[in-house]
Amino acid sequence: xxxxxxxxxxxxxxxxxxxxxxxxxxxxxxxxxxxxxxxxxxxxxxxxxxxxxxxxxxxxxxxxxxxxxxxxxxxxxxxxxxxxxxxxxxxxxxxxxxxxxxxxxxxxxxxxxxxxxxxxxxxxxxxxxxxxxxxxxxxxxxxxxxxxxxxxxxxxxxxxxxxxxxxxxxxxxxxxxxxxxxxxxxxxxxxxxxxxxxxxxxxxxxxxxxxxxxxxxxxxxxxxxxxxxxxxxxxxxxxxxxxxxxxxxxxxxxxxxxxxxxxxxxxxxxxxxxxxxxxxxxxxxxxxxxxxxxxxxxxxxxxxxxxxxxxxxxxxxxxxxxxxxxxxxxxxxxxxxxxxxxxxxxxxxxxxxxxxxxxxxxxxxxxxxxxxxxxxxxxxxxxxxxxxxxxxxxxxxxxxxxxxxxxxxxxxxxxxxxxxxxxxxxxxxxxxxxxxxxxxxxxxxxxxxxxxxxxx
Length: 456
Description:
By secondary structure, the chain is an alpha+beta fold. 28% of the residues lie in helices and 27% in strands. Helix 7 packs parallel to helix 8 and helix 12 packs across helix 13. It catalyses: tRNA(Phe) + L-phenylalanine + ATP = L-phenylalanyl-tRNA(Phe) + AMP + diphosphate + H(+). It is an enzyme of class 6 (ligase). It holds the Pfam family FDX-ACB.
């Protein structure tokens, strides 16, 4: 199995930048021996534990609560558009959830890839760092007194390394329910949604028996009305965010023609495990269609598992980081986590402004090639996410990108070879060859110790 070294990390490997040093001072979680302490709660580790200290350090950052940070600005921009009498806003859920909350209540199959250790950060067998805000649906559906709710939170997934992927990111989720059969109330609520300044290409059918089916317990009319209310609500979000961004572009002096054109959106049918029917909304932005959010009618099993009887409703989810990158012109997702004031002081509450680059430090590349063990009986199965995690553990945010550049199987021995290319580039300083070589050697050593690979 994949395990993490408990030996002290060398100062020259992870503490060589002021940014990393600062991040180490603002953690709220500690991994020590056989216990992980997060927000004052101790969790016993076991064979499922795979979360490193570098990820635990991020759990106390809570960027979505910072009013002067792009993530917080975007989150508040959306929430401020909705009536607190209609929606309850949750912003302070703790990041550790149970496997029941994150997977079981949402009816994730036992063999779903999201449950695997290669995709998810486990505290232990029964607890993990949430992989989506839907992990709190169970609690919200049971406890919320208003017809709907919004959740904003940081979420965590083991993932690839590039300018748009980071192991910690942010989501916003919304949901709303009605008593089944309360058609008149749904119609009334639908009429109360404010108009939007959009050109909308809507769905041509409320559902499709084969490609986007409705649920058996709902009538055609219920499905149609709930779907309409959902799509109109999501259009309010898109209208609020992207038209505000267009205004900011004009104020900044941009003469791009698209800023004076009506904002266009289109709805496309989709599939999600916990909603049916389901859709995605795409926005025409700077000459291309951008996927903005996914949504759908909540499956009955989710409401049943949450103890919400005789109800129907909708839910949506939106990733805040990639939208914020577009709106604020941030070229690298790592910048959101920077503690450099040259980044943070560029933004202010309730205002979308374009990021002004303050530096471009030179980068350098290193390739790591190795043979995988021919027999996996006594070794852990290898997943690319395992390489990415080792790279993050020793290189942190000094690594801009990791990609696999070659895979090869020897025709005679049957052994498989992989080659990964690591692009090192700091956002805060020029890296020396000595620093890069030290990190690279630590990554190589960890690979041989944990996966019994043969370096080439």
